[in-house]
């Protein structure tokens, strides 16, 4: 057992309001630079939608991630022979048109234009050429289902859905969508690391953050192709690729990453996970139906004596173990089994987990005779009436889950490689907690009914309360359990701390050019 | 008393050693620079026998001749021109020797007892059939650098060419050695390798003396090469290489063209962009 620690993340999609504050926080700190304008290390996508870059989930186009053949996995678009063949001309590399041409407006024209008959306008200019352009696309062009059928209806996750199921999502006045915030998943089996011909990408030993060494990167851009989540971006100005660094300078100082810190909906959780690195290859090569279960199995119990001993033997600090025991991500993912990884079928073993959204499902289910209306619509469509009630209790307890506004298949395509039972399991748990809390706070639900509900999904009452607490009332310290980085030890590996002993201050990284 | 005798001894040693040095310098300079082409009383080689040269020519002419034969000829010196014709147009290379050095050498020559009338022993003729195939092979290996010189000198082919199909085209920095043996005699070639009279070669082999056995092998090989010349030029690869290169470029370009055919040529957003209305 090779126990390692990973700073893992969890996004609670039920709570995301799609405000893009995370994206802006990230942009302001990291990517508001020349060459990085089009990079969105953090972005929020509307689902159904094609995302950013457009159709990133369609690996027939982008050839990212791993593919399995006879129990062995290989990179879909890179690797030894294929990488060599593509190294000077990579046919699957996303181009600027797949993202968008970054732009700004000539705001000064509004102020400095000479007096005239017309109102001055701020023309859009390209941030790449500096010349006026027609804006063709943006990073959230299809936000909130806006745009033509070119966008949401092209969502790769709609595969295997019947036309009726697809249409149900796009009915006027009955549209349903949810938001999918995305950052780098800091995978356990990162395709970007495997694809880099220069060996510039590495997964940090102490916390598993995947980083690109800017001094070693030689702009081959194989990582851009290889990352199935398209979260490695090429900076055309510096000639290096860049990606989300999970705000490691903030983490090392004990702060949550900027996107998580600024999250308005408080959907983001961060904590340590222990995993068994010996099993990575075996699990990444497993059959598609087993991927999720095996990945969750690989995450280890931080209270297990054996695990603790093995972790200590591997140099995992006591403080990290403690953080792992308090980890909110561990609770959501392992203890309560509420979360799923995004697109496990890419086989990178992503360590960012999502609690699938229940909210848009829960519109009215009342005893209204709408057979007349139903005849005009397809069976999946929900029927809204004027006297609708936001009711989660029905005669048939889980009926609403099976007929959700979002076809289960759609969410299964995203979170469980097409296995609907896993999504249903999570949604049922979420709903059970809701029924339990409604019984407690409103008191209009029969206690035995609450009990059967919880029992159906293997939850205890206090467990449900814990879920409720961590979901709704959690404070900063509950949501972000950041292990101490022990930089003092890391520095001692690189330089002799004794050199600065007796000196004033911390010394200089680069001495001032005019002398001291 | 003891110290006095010590000082006296030291003085004697010092004086005698300087005398020895002065005498030796002429000899060592002669052996370093002249011996490749000249003898004193042992007959002519590439250049004339120098026995009694100090009586035949005056000193200033000798100094000029040794320092730069070329400029002497350029000036129209008849004696120098006559010598040039006599020695098949093989001009004596300029020697980087100071006037003092030359005087020391002349002094050494004067001391030698040999005289111009000494027996002119013809150099021993080595017949081609006497050459050992092993030696020829070793000579070729040394020439092209397959076998290293014992003392680390660079292979001959770096600067010299041989007009033979056996070895690849050599350098053009120094003279083609194909007909070196008839031109310079075996002894001359051997002496030139042992004590290179040309500045670049001398510098290149400074402290990396070619051993006697290696020299003999090379000379054997050079003689063999000369004898086996069939009168035709060695194959000129120039045009063929160019053709190969062009074919190679065509193949590579074709390969890259095919590589470039893969993948989509349009962006994912192609249909959206196409439909959009453009200003201007």
Keywords:
heterodimer; A: 516 residues; alpha+beta; nitrate reductase domain fold; 5-stranded mixed beta sheet; 22 helices; 13% strand; globular; B: 280 residues; mainly alpha; Cytochrome Bc1 Complex, Chain D, domain 2; 3 domains; 12 helices; elongated
Rg value of chain B: 30 Å
CATH topology descriptor of the largest domain in chain B: Cytochrome Bc1 Complex, Chain D, domain 2
Number of helices of chain B: 12
Mean pLDDT of chain B: 80
Q: Mind telling me which CATH architecture of the largest domain in chain B this is?
A: Orthogonal Bundle
Q: Which CATH class of the largest domain in chain B is shown?
A: Mainly Alpha
Oligomer: heterodimer
Mean pLDDT reading of chain A: 88
Gyration radius of chain A, rounded: 25 Å
Which structural class matches the secondary elements of chain B? mainly alpha
CATH homologous superfamily heading of the largest domain in chain B: Cytochrome c-like domain
Pair of chains with the largest interface and how many residues each contributes: A-B, 20 and 16 residues
Helix content of chain B: 40-55%
| Approximate shape of chain A | globular
Strand order across the largest sheet of chain A = 13-12-1-15-14
State the end-to-end CA separation of chain B. 114 Å
* Percent of residues in β-strands of chain B: under 5%
Q: Characterize the main sheet of chain B.
A: none
Regions with little confidence, pLDDT below 50 for 5+ residues of chain B: 115-120
